[in-house]
């Protein structure tokens, strides 16, 4: 995956096989059967979240405590490598979010932390690193559960507000973990077929 290599030179942390194919398959099955709620956004300058399907459309699935604990064990094991790579000392992570992107779902370009936002809540200001864990991919994975579109696209340079220096898409790979500083501008492009399953959290 050449774009992953390029992005790693620009500040993206990549760990393949963070979750096994079997674990990915089990979590996808649990998510698909779970109750889902629409994901919200917090517009710049507003303290509260709102539902805005022109900016973001995806579902948040509820999963078991056992699944959350399993993923958190992996996060705990990975934290020392993140500390070394990013030269930070996070105290933990925020609540894991289990997202299902159906056909047409997307998340427009945004930052998970924006220091220019005067009313940014404390939980947003606390974010140091954003994490995405891919549970399936555009090539199908071992389970053959593929999706089309849905690339995670990174823009410009982290913290650079002078314009888009680059625009690099990263396709999901089953079981892959990526982390990046939370002020990096990024988006999820619309899914064109299948379902895109991911887990997202933020180290603080």
Order of helices and strands: HEHEEEHEEHEEEEEEEE
Approximately what portion of the residues adopt beta-strand conformation? 25-35%
What number of structural domains do the residues give?
Answer: 1
- Overall average pLDDT: 92
Order the strands across the largest sheet as they lie in space: 1-11-7-14-5-4-2
Helix content: 10-25%
CATH homologous superfamily classification:
q2cbj1_9rhob like domain
Question: Spans of 5+ residues with little confidence (pLDDT < 50)?
Answer: none
Distance between the termini: 29 Å
Named at the architecture level, the CATH assignment is Sandwich
Q: Could you give the count of β-strands?
A: 14
Number of helices: 4
- CATH topology-level fold name: Jelly Rolls
The CATH class assignment is: Mainly Beta
């Amino acid at each position: 995956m050449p774009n992953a290599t390029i992005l790693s030179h620009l500040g993206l942390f990549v760990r393949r096989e963070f979750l096994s194919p079997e674990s990915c398959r089990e979590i996808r099955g649990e998510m698909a059967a779970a109750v889902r709620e629409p994901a919200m956004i917090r517009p710049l300058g507003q303290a509260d979240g709102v539902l805005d399907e022109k900016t973001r459309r995806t579902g948040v699935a509820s999963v078991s405590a056992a699944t959350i604990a399993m993923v958190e064990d992996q996060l705990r094991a990975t934290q020392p490598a993140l500390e070394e790579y990013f030269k930070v000392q996070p105290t933990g992570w925020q609540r894991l979010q289990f997202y299902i992107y159906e056909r047409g779902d997307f998340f427009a370009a945004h930052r998970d932390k924006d220091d220019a936002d005067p009313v940014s809540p404390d939980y947003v200001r606390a974010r140091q690193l954003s994490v995405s864990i891919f549970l399936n991919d555009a090539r199908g994975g071992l389970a053959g559960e593929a999706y089309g579109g849905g690339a995670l696209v990174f823009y410009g340079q982290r913290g650079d507000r002078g314009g888009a220096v680059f625009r690099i898409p990263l396709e999901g790979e089953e079981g892959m973990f990526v982390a990046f500083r939370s002020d990096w501008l990024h988006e999820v492009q619309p899914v064109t077929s299948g379902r895109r399953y991911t887990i997202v959290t933020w180290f603080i």
